[in-house]
Design a protein that fits this description.
By secondary structure, the protein is an alpha/beta fold. It has three domains: 107 residues, 3-Layer(aba) Sandwich (Cobalt-precorrin-4 Transmethylase, domain 1), CATH 3.40.1010.10; 106 residues, 2-Layer Sandwich (Methyltransferase, Cobalt-precorrin-4 Transmethylase, Domain 2); 47 residues. Helix content is 43%, strand content 19%. It contains eleven helices and ten strands. The chain has a five-stranded parallel sheet with strand order 3-2-4-1-5, with helices on both faces. A five-stranded mixed sheet has the order 6-7-10-8-9, with helices on both faces. Strand 2, helix 2 and strand 3 form a beta-alpha-beta unit. The longest helix is centred in the N-terminal third of the chain and has 13 residues. The radius of gyration is 23 Å and the shape is elongated. It starts with a strand and ends with a helix. The mean pLDDT is 90.
Length: 275
């Protein structure tokens, strides 16, 4: 008996109409649908009148259910892998099953479609020739700030996700570390309450302060400009001038970073080294 095929099917990130005709055909034809959360997936499947055997691989079940699903595939069953939204395995569960399928010599076939990363990039207005995707920001502030400081030196466009209960504190960190760097935020993408914001991090943070922090967030930050195009020397001279007038280094750096749209942390370090 030949083995079945594992389809990696992208599903809508919000609007149920954002699904491909091929994805609908595959979901109707496979023997089993492996879903991150069957309760969530039933909304999509019921909307399109799709009735298939469902197995859940959510959370702690993923490793066990991956083995069970591999057994189904080896028995000749075709399986579609879906996550709650977007593409399985991309900042979503699914990699355990995909890896096991490859290890067992099972054919894996992508059925591409919606992706929050690409959708956000496409409307950000920033360069898309090169970008770096970092998944979700670390929950612990020290780790988050360390990552953001590393990313502040990136020349590529930076994309990451953030959870609603951390969005304000994360934007506090982004505003301090990236200064007035152009930033883009989209939440509830393709859903009824979709909202897009563009500006510097501090401005976006202020807008978030007075709104309901719910839903899913994608943050896009413009890459660092080439050194020759950045007002680095002028900024350092201005810091030196302010300090001669009696202002403390920290406050001088804060003022100049805001004026030039530079990273406060990076400018502070450069002011210490004098370069």
């Amino acid at each position: 008996m030949s083995t079945g095929k594992l389809y990696i099917v992208a599903t809508p990130i919000g609007n149920l109409e954002d699904i491909t005709l091929r994805a609908l055909r595959v979901l109707k034809e496979v023997d089993v649908i492996a879903a991150e959360d069957t309760r969530h997936s039933l909304r999509l499947l019921n909307h399109y009148g799709i009735s298939r055997q469902l197995v859940s691989y959510w959370g702690e079940k993923e490793k066990v259910r991956a083995e069970e699903t591999v057994s189904l595939l080896k028995a000749g069953k075709n399986v579609a892998l879906i996550s709650d939204a977007g593409t399985p395995g991309v900042a979503d569960p699914g990699n355990v099953l995909i890896r096991r399928a490859w290890e067992e010599g099972i054919r894996v076939e992508p059925v591409p479609g919606p992706s929050a990363v690409i959708a956000a990039l496409s409307v950000s207005g920033f360069s898309t020739e090169e970008f770096i995707f970092c998944g979700f920001l670390p929950a612990k502030q020290s780790r988050r700030r360390k990552l953001l400081e590393e990313l502040s030196r990136e020349k590529r466009t930076v994309v990451f996700y953030e959870a609603p209960h951390r969005i304000l504190e994360s934007f506090d960190d982004i505003a301090e570390i990236f200064g007035r760097r152009s930033t883009f935020l989209v939440r509830e993408m393709t859903k009824m309450h979709e909202e897009l914001m563009r500006g510097d991090a501090a401005g976006i943070r202020d807008r978030l302060e007075g709104s309901v922090t719910a839903g899913e967030y994608v943050i896009v930050i413009e890459g660092r400009r080439d050194e020759k195009n950045r007002p680095g020397e002028e900024a350092l001279k201005e810091i030196e001038s302010l300090m001669k007038k009696g202002l403390g280094r920290k406050e001088a750096v804060k003022r100049v970073a805001e004026e030039y749209g530079l990273s406060r942390k990076e400018l502070y370090d450069r002011s210490l080294s004098g370069a």
